[in-house]
Design goal:
The protein is of the alpha+beta class and 91 residues long. It contains 4 helices and 5 strands. The protein has helices at 3-16, 24-31, 45-61, 78-90, and strands at 22-23, 37-38, 41-42, 65-68, 73-76. Helix 1 (3-16) packs across helix 3.
Length: 91
């Protein structure tokens, strides 16, 4: 599994365990340490936070999560739950 998919899976799994969703700070604490390499770049703490935010935006754009930009709260959608279930059944 590539590092982007791995990060997506970590985020979706963390959100699936929380009915109320998570804000960016709590989500970062749950999915860290981030993979050493995201899109081929060495991650520092700042790059790791940027990678997490980029992943959240991509997941939101894909309909896998609902990201509230006013509160930084993220919630998993039904599409995200289905993705986790599909990936879990393939392993």
């Amino acid at each position: 599994m590539n590092t982007t998919a791995s990060l997506f899976a970590k985020i979706l799994t963390a959100l699936s365990d929380r009915d109320s969703g998570l804000n960016l700070e709590h989500l970062a604490a749950l999915v860290t340490p981030l993979p050493d390499s995201v899109a081929g770049l060495r991650t520092t703490e700042k790059n790791g936070q940027a990678a997490l935010l980029d992943a959240l935006i991509a997941l939101n754009d894909g309909g896998y999560i609902a990201l509230n930009p006013l509160t930084d709260q993220s919630r998993i959608t039904l599409k995200g739950l289905v993705w986790i279930g599909t990936k879990g059944n393939l392993n």
